[in-house]
Amino acid sequence: MKESFLRKGFASTERLIGLDEVEELQGIYNELLRDKKRTAHLRSDLAGGATNGNEVEKITQIMRPSMIVPNLKEHAVYAIARTYAQELLGEDMELDFDMLINKAPYTNMETPWHQDAAYWIRLPDKRSVSIWIALDEVYEENGCMWFIPKTKGANIEPHQALPNGGALFCEVTDLQQAECIPLSPGGCTFHDGFTLHFSKGNSTESQRRALILNFRPKTMIALEREQGVDHTGARKVRQR
Q: Computed from CA positions of residues 91, 183, 59, 24, in that sequence, does the dihedral angle turn out positive or negative?
């Protein structure tokens, strides 16, 4: 797995956590999805829709859920993910931020091709890994992850915002190498900030829930915080 991650910019594992741990996270996840008042300052619809009216959120993003539910960080998945991050990129890797992303049933809104680094400030140490953990069965029709293998020395492509103010996107013309990665609940993907990724809309009757944990070097997290970046602000970090 490490060789694939370092060479292509992404990798996956069929089982990061067990079904008991998945069910625990689903319960917390559903509570936060329902509670628009408590999550309002950390919540957005990546499709550009409203989050405080009666309109259905198509792609709900809740940044830093562990700020609302502090004991969330005590869940086993955080320690397990940290171990993987350190095995992939070094012992100085620590949690930068966590995030919930939900694609609602029958909303069919894709998350466009993008690189996460397009949302971030420039840092001297560019090591990072986002661990995308499936809390449902995910497949092409409900929005599993797609990746394009990264080329050596990859840079950030020009990005622009969707007209409705949702996510950033970039133009991708060659999709021949794009890889689709279905997952069972508890499985996950790993990708770095420069790897192009995408997911289709959810055209099914069920939710597509994911927990994303992002890790980077401890010194770079401190540098971010010194510059006022805590991943809770108006400039949303949004992906998938």
A: negative
52 pLDDT above the threshold of 60: no
Q: What mean pLDDT do residues 2-19 have?
A: 96
Tens digit of each residue's pLDDT (9 = 90 or more) over 93-112: 999 999 999 999 999 999 99
* Partners of 215 in the β-ladder: 95, 129
Percent helix, strand and coil across the chain, each to the nearest 5: 30, 25, 45
Burial class from Cβ neighbours inside 10 Å (0-12, 13-18, 19+) for residue 126 reads: middle
CA distance 175 to 148: 7
Q: How many residues does the chain have?
A: 240
- Rounded to whole angstroms, the Cα distance separating 12 from 188 reads 6
